[in-house]
Amino acid sequence: MPPDPLVSIITPSYNQGPFIRATIESVLAQNYPRLEYIIMDGGSTDETAAIVRDYASRLTWISEKDRGQSHAINKGFQMARGEIVSWLNSDDIILAGAVQTAVQALRDHPNAGAIYGEGYCLDRDGIVTRRFASTEPFNLWKLVYLSDYILQQTVYFRRSVFDEIGWLDEDLHYTMDWDLLIRIGRRRPIEYIPEYLGSIREYPEAKSFAGGAPRIREIRELLRKHTGLRYPPGYIVYALHDYCRIWCAAIERRMPALLAKKLQAPLSLACGYGIDKAARSQGWYPDGWAGPTVKLMVSPPGDQPIILEGEIPAGLEQELTIEVDRLPSSKVLLKPGSFRHAIIVPEAIR
């Protein structure tokens, strides 16, 4: 990667005149020296065009009919010249220094397909109301089965990753970022950095809040595709949240234990090819504890063994039976204390 790789940011836009000036200025105020900014407008009929003209010499503006947000983003990505790309919706903002921070993170993690960070929630007037509470270090199992905890406004992609996985699915209108992150995560590392990079604007008309039943149906179909389950855990949680806002809070707090059938057991695990690539605490429990049946998801290891590390509390022992892609691999009796076990992946599924 050259010292200053070109970074391209795409903003899909349609009739977001009240917000787009703040979005544009958050991008153009970045302190990064090589930045390409493209606005893909769907033919806005409000004040958007007049606002964008104020910045015409510093960005690329294209206004034409499109087939929706995903199509607009794809068109922008395909036009973009940057080695690093991102998209920023026309009612959201990125924070000062975000691009420089993202570039450095991708330098620090040369195998990563994408990076993401922390973010804030804004009200209609752009006032910070809270931290985006869902963000946490990367957990592929949780992303695939349970929730999209990654704030899209903080994500930066290595442009080459699209050559491996393809573009956004243009049939998706609410979950295209979730789907894209799952597809990347199955092929390449995605790195979390504990820095605040962007903000999402929350208000009743925003697409994520006004999606209703169509959004929930799309979540269901997305998770069915990626998990093979008829009723993925994430679909149940999101449906409860959207359909039962008044009474679901207590149920959601109990949902992990209910769906896991109280499977928590005294075994703490990490899994990967090295400690820096470990898949830690995947599943319901963020504190490192695992259940009697644990599913860990890691990228294809090639001919490297998978290293399973963990700790058994004093006074206990546990038999561990290991299957890889549903094929029996090994069985080991774990004594109290730390353990490290190498799993050889069958050649047929490498």
Describe this structure in words.
The protein is α+β, with helices and mostly antiparallel strands and about 350 residues long. The protein has eleven helices and 16 strands. The strands form three sheets. Strands 1, 2, 3, 4, 5, 6, 7, 8 and 9 form a nine-stranded mixed sheet that branches. Strands 10, 11, 12, 13 and 16 form a five-stranded antiparallel sheet that branches. Helix 2 links the parallel strand 2 and strand 3. Helix 10 packs antiparallel against helix 11. Mean pLDDT is about 85; it is low at about 245-250 and about 255-280.
List the helices and strands and how they pair.
Elements: E1 7-13, H1 17-28, E2 35-41, H2 48-53, E3 60-63, H3 69-79, E4 84-87, E5 93-94, H4 98-108, E6 114-122, E7 128-131, H5 140-145, E8 156-158, H6 161-165, H7 176-185, E9 190-201, H8 207-210, H9 212-227, H10 233-243, H11 248-260, E10 265-272, E11 279-280, E12 289-290, E13 306-312, E14 318-324, E15 327-334, E16 337-343
Parallel strand pairs: 1-2, 1-4, 2-3, 6-9
Antiparallel strand pairs: 4-8, 5-9, 6-7, 6-8, 10-11, 10-12, 10-13, 13-16, 14-15
Helix pairs in contact: 9-10, 10-11
Mean pLDDT across the residues is: 83
Q: Any idea what the shape is?
A: elongated
Termini Cα gap: 29 Å
Overall helicity: 25-40%
Number of helices: 11
Radius of gyration: 22 Å
Are there runs of 5+ residues with pLDDT below 50, and where?
A: 246-252, 255-281
Structural class: alpha+beta
E-strand count: 16
